[in-house]
Amino acid sequence: MSFFKDKVAIVTGAGSGIGKALAQGLAARGAKVVISDFNEDRIAQVEKEFLDKGWECVAFVLDVRDAQAVKDMVDATLEKHGRINLMFNNAGIAVGGEAKDCQLEDWRNVLDINLYGVVNGVAAVYPLMVEQGYGHIVNTASVEGLCPFPGTASYVASKYGVVGLSHSLRLEGAARGVKVSVVCPGYIKTAIFEDSKLVGLSRDELDKVRPPDWIGITPEQCAAIVLRGVEKNKATIVVTAFAKILATINRISPTVMQWMMTSSFKSALRKRAKQQLKQ
Ligand SMILES: NC(=O)c1ccc[n+]([C@@H]2O[C@H](COP(=O)([O-])OP(=O)(O)OC[C@H]3O[C@@H](n4cnc5c(N)ncnc54)[C@H](O)[C@@H]3O)[C@@H](O)[C@H]2O)c1
Predict the structure, then answer these.
(1) Which atom of ligand 1 approaches the CA of 192 most closely?
(2) Rounded to an integer, what distance in angstroms lies between the CA atom of residue 92 and that of residue 115?
(3) CA nearest neighbour of 173 among 209, 219, 117, 125
(4) Nearest-CA neighbor of 165 among 128, 131, 123?
(5) Beta strand pairing status for 32-37 and 136-140?
(6) How confident is the model over 173-190, as a mean pLDDT?
């Protein structure tokens, strides 16, 4: 029997990409899923797909920045099912471009959604899980929460925050029967790249510095790895071979990582300058 059979699982940002694939993986394994997203069309489409397959599913349209809305979803789930086994705080966005071109509003948006969105999920569900004496919180960070990356400083700041929060909460939770894991994916082929806001950078320029497709994996492959990690109660679930290599280099020698990242950033800037001269 599947580990996830009859587990009650909430997933935020389930309208697309990794969140949708996680919810799909959970539902296919027999979980009762509660899905949410702030994009009404996307989440309605996912709900329809799931119900058509005969899976148990309830959908909420909510913004993870709205702490009360997140709490209301958690409370409604508890009222319906009498328990919450799993909470995937997954919704996230990115802003691409150099820090010098980011407005305060960009920093705020990224931190509000990526970090405070997770905080809102934790604040709504953790005390309840402590009361239950069980539960598992799974927060989506990124390999950019384990290594420094130029060109996405606000994203990196938010994801380092999610990693620190999750690792610390895991220690507290261990004494209270609650498990906590953090997911750190490398390149997963989702809509996030097309949906991201860019500052001081055109879409064409981004495509030139984007990781090559062969490095990435599908959201479904990512979800399968995450669910295996959750089953094993891993503290940090690093997804993709390339992300594992980067995380290992940074752990062994942050100096080598800084040299690698600075060199590739300088080389990208040089290429860009040459191209601009040609135009
Ligand atoms: N795709 C990657 O390569 C990658 C790598 C590392 C980490 N991640 C992280 O994985 C998570 C999922 O990203 P994805 O790649 O599946 O992207 P995605 O764009 O395909 O999906 C993200 C979903 O979150 C929703 N969302 C955005 N802001 C929201 C908000 N304020 N409230 C509620 N929902 C909101 C979007 O509508 C979207 O449906 C994010 O936290 C992202 O940072 C992605």
Answers:
(1) 19
(2) 9
(3) 125
(4) 123
(5) unpaired
(6) 98
Query: Could you give the domains of the chain?
Result: 8-253 (3.40.50.720)
Evaluate the CA torsion angle 120, 18, 226, 165 in order and state its sign: negative
Task: Give SS3 for 6.
Answer: coil
Q: Alpha-carbon distance 234 to 228, whole Å?
A: 9
- Check if the beta carbon of residue 75 is closer than 8 Å to that of residue 69: no
Contacts of 218 (CB under 8 A, 6+ apart): 21, 188, 189
Q: Which of 72, 159, 190, 225 to mutate to test the pocket of ligand 1 (most atoms within 8 A of CB)?
A: 190
DSSP secondary structure code for residue 211 in this structure? P
How far is residue 256's CA from residue 254's CA, in Å, rounded to a whole number? 6
Most ligand 1 atoms within 8 A of CB, residue of 93, 194, 210 to mutate: 93
pLDDT, tens only, 65-74: 999 999 999 9
The alpha carbon torsion through 222, 145, 112, 38 (nearest 10 deg) reads -10
Q: Is the pTM of this model over 0.85?
A: yes
- CB neighbours of 74 closer than 8 A, spacing ≥ 6? 10, 84, 87, 124, 125, 128
pLDDT digits (tens, 9 = 90+) for 256-271: 999 999 999 999 899 8
Q: Phi/psi class of residue 30: alpha, beta or left (left: φ > 0; alpha: ψ in -120 to 50)? A: left
Share of the chain above pLDDT 70, in %: 100
The question of whether 155 is a catalytic residue gets the answer yes
Beta-carbon contacts of 78 under 8 Å, excluding residues fewer than 6 positions away, are 84, 128
